[in-house]
């Protein structure tokens, strides 16, 4: 019998403690991350897959150039074994491409409470709850995951990239920004959201007939983008920022008949935000 | 009057939990998602949480996107008939090692 349960509902009719549902506990902070490396790996300790929040570059404009902005995203999370996970952060620093990121971003890691029950937490008189199978679901003496403000979940659309295949130009890609207005300032906040990672696209820029070889040469420019996040005021932006540098390729005889752009379609990700001051 | 509040303080007076002010994520499910074609996708429904608001996250143990390899992720939440539903697609065509995406679903403590 489950005799150690409790439920709490706040004034907005939202449950903040539920006797049968497992919640997440704050395990620690990593960073600030700095240095001149495009992709930064951080190894975190967590039993079970970690829930990772990343602080958002806030009004960080150093190195920005016109349409290029600094943005970061969580590139991947993979297990290393022994409760160790490697979190890779990717991003771009404005017009300098991937070569120089020195943003002091931080990671905050949360794990399931019943798997990550910390020792030595008897510092105060607290309240605990267990579910029917005996798993700890709440501990008032620990920093349990809780989201910032009243907006706790928003969906972000991550649009396909520009330029269009007729070479409409890089400048038009600011129209593909995604902005999410939140009811609180994003300074001092961290987000948990998915991303589209790095994306490459082709753009035909010309063709000519090579009389010596006897065939047409089709010329393409390749662009690379990373989908980074950054914030200003109470708006979170998901923007494609160029990796810096462009590639060039040619095909001979026939053009690229089908440039598969299905991967460039709009995709969606959820967003959650936490207040960094609650998780020092 | 708000008579049903739980608050916890550290010995130095720092408030670390306040049941009246907080919004938490309650764990529902964690599952692997096999790759599917971009534009398609797979949906998961949680009828036992009908009427509740959920949140979902899709992650990958491999980096999303690389030259000639795409790992596009999409994760949407909808409530058809009040039943929380998560629709995801995870396309890793071209990845040298096929992998699954990891989906985690939470209850936000709120109703729809």
Strand and helix map with partners:
The complex is a heterodimer of chains A (280) and B (112).
Chain A: E1 8-9, E2 15-17, E3 24-33, E4 40-45, E5 51-55, E6 71-81, E7 84-92, E8 105-112, E9 128-130, E10 136-139, E11 154-158, E12 178-181, E13 189-193, E14 198-210, E15 215-232, E16 235-242, E17 247-252, E18 267-275
Antiparallel strand pairs in A: 1-2, 3-8, 4-7, 5-8, 5-13, 6-7, 9-10, 11-18, 12-16, 13-18, 14-15, 15-16, 15-17
Chain B: E1 7-9, E2 15-18, E3 26-33, E4 42-45, E5 52-59, E6 72-78, E7 85-91, E8 101-111
Antiparallel strand pairs in B: 1-2, 3-8, 4-7, 5-8, 6-7
Structure described in brief:
Chain A has no helices and 18 strands. With about 280 residues, chain A is mainly beta. Chain A is elongated.
User: Kindly, what is the distance between the CA atoms of the first and last residues of chain A, rounded to a whole number of angstroms?
Assistant: 37 Å
**Secondary structure: number of strands of chain B:** 8
Strand order of the largest sheet of chain A: 3-8-5-13-18-11
Computed over alpha carbons, the radius of gyration of chain B is 19 Å
Largest sheet of chain A: 6 strands, antiparallel
Mean pLDDT value of chain B: 77
The low-confidence runs of chain A, each spanning 5 or more residues with pLDDT under 50, are: 163-171
How many strands appear in the DSSP assignment of chain A?
A: 18
Query: How would you sum up the major sheet of chain B?
Result: 3 strands, antiparallel
Major interchain interface with per-chain residue totals: A-B, 60 and 57 residues
Mean pLDDT of chain A: 76
| Helix content bin of chain B | under 10%
Can you tell me the overall shape of chain B?
flat
Characteristics:
heterodimer; A: mainly beta; 6-stranded antiparallel beta sheet; 5-stranded antiparallel beta sheet; 0% helix; elongated; B: 112 residues; mainly beta; 3-stranded antiparallel beta sheet; 8 strands; 46% strand; flat
């Amino acid at each position: 019998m489950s005799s150690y349960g409790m439920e709490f509902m706040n004034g907005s009719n939202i449950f903040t403690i539920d006797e049968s549902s497992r919640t997440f506990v704050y395990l620690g902070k990593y960073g600030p991350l700095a240095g001149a490396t495009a992709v930064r790996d951080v190894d975190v300790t967590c039993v079970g897959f970690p829930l990772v929040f990343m602080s958002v570059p806030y009004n960080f404009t150093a190195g920005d150039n016109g349409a290029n902005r600094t943005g970061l995203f969580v590139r991947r999370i993979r297990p290393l074994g022994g409760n160790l996970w490697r979190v890779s952060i990717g991003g771009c620093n404005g017009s300098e491409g991937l070569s120089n990121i020195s943003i002091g971003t931080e990671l905050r890691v949360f794990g399931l409470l019943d798997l990550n029950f910390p020792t030595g937490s008897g510092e105060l008189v607290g309240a605990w709850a267990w579910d029917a199978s005996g798993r700890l679901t709440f501990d008032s003496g620990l920093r349990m995951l809780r989201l910032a403000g009243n907006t706790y979940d928003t969906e972000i659309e991550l649009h396909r990239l520009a330029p269009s295949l007729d070479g409409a130009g890089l400048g038009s890609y600011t129209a593909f920004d995604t902005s999410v207005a939140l009811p609180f300032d994003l300074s001092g906040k961290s987000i948990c959201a998915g991303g589209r990672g790095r994306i490459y696209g082709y753009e035909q820029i010309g063709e000519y007939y090579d009389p010596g070889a006897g065939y047409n040469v089709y010329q393409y420019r390749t662009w690379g983008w990373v989908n980074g996040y950054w914030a200003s005021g109470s708006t979170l932006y998901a923007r494609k920022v160029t990796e810096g540098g462009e590639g060039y390729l040619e095909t001979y005889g026939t053009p690229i008949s089908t440039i598969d752009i299905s991967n460039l379609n709009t995709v969606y990700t959820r967003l959650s935000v936490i207040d960094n001051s609650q998780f020092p | 009057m708000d008579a049903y509040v739980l608050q916890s303080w550290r010995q130095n007076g720092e408030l670390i939990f306040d049941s009246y002010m907080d919004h938490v994520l309650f764990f529902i499910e964690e599952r692997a998602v096999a790759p599917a074609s971009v534009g398609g996708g797979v949906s998961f429904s949680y009828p036992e949480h009908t009427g509740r608001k959920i949140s979902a996250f899709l992650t990958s143990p491999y980096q999303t996107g690389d030259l000639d390899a795409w790992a596009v992720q999409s994760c949407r939440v909808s409530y058809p008939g009040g039943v929380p539903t998560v629709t995801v697609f995870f396309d890793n065509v071209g990845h040298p090692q096929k992998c699954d995406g990891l989906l985690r679903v939470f209850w936000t403590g709120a109703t729809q």
